[in-house]
Amino acid sequence: MSSGGLSIHCVDVASGRVAEGLQVRVLRLDATGQPQEPALAEGRVGPTGVFQHPALMSEAITAGGYEVRFAVGDFYRSQGAQVPSPAFLEAVPYRFHIADARQHYHLPFKFTAWGFSLFRGGA
Fold first, then answer.
1. Cα–Cα distance, 74 to 122 (Å, whole number)
2. pLDDT tens-digit profile of 57-97?
3. Where are the domains of the chain?
4. How far apart are CA 75 and CA 24, in angstroms?
5. Which of 29, 56, 70, 95 counts the highest number of beta carbons within 10 A?
6. Which CATH architecture has domain 6-113?
7. What is the torsion angle, in degrees rounded to the nearest 10, for the CA atoms of residue 101, residue 119, residue 73 and residue 78?
8. What percent of the chain has pLDDT over 90?
9. Is 104 exposed, middle or buried (0-12, 13-18, 19+ CB in 10 A)?
10. How far is the C-alpha of 22 from the C-alpha of 83, rounded, in Å?
11. How far apart are CA 10 and CA 53, in angstroms?
């Protein structure tokens, strides 16, 4: 059975630009629903707004639970934004489950320093 993979696209809707440089971590959840280290994928969003990592489009994506963590506070500080310390949104965790690993799962993350939207999109 081949994996449909996972894609993550991040947009800073406050600026109207893709979130190049946003730190992202993808972790598996264990049977009790807790995130497991080490991360399955970790890195920064690229210039197209997509978080690229080889594991996300590989057989490593199987049925089960996942958590994606977005480092929103660090992103805005790196942009020179005046956010409080700690920021209202330091890190945004998003837990979801994959029932059919043959399907592709696309996660659009749209955010500001004060709120966010996450959902399964079509890709």
1. 28
2. 999 999 999 999 999 999 999 999 989 989 999 999 999 99
3. 6-113
4. 10
5. 70
6. Sandwich (2.60)
7. 80
8. 93
9. middle
10. 16
11. 14
- pLDDT value of residue 1: 54
Contact 98, 63 (CB under 8 A): yes
60, 40 Cβ separation under 8 angstroms: yes
Of 87 and 3, the structure prediction assigns the larger pLDDT to 87
Q: How many residues does the chain have?
A: 123
The C-alpha atoms of residue 21 and residue 28 are separated, in whole angstroms, by: 23
Statement: residue 2 has pLDDT above 80:
no
Is the distance from CB of 68 to CB of 9 less than 8 angstroms? Answer: no
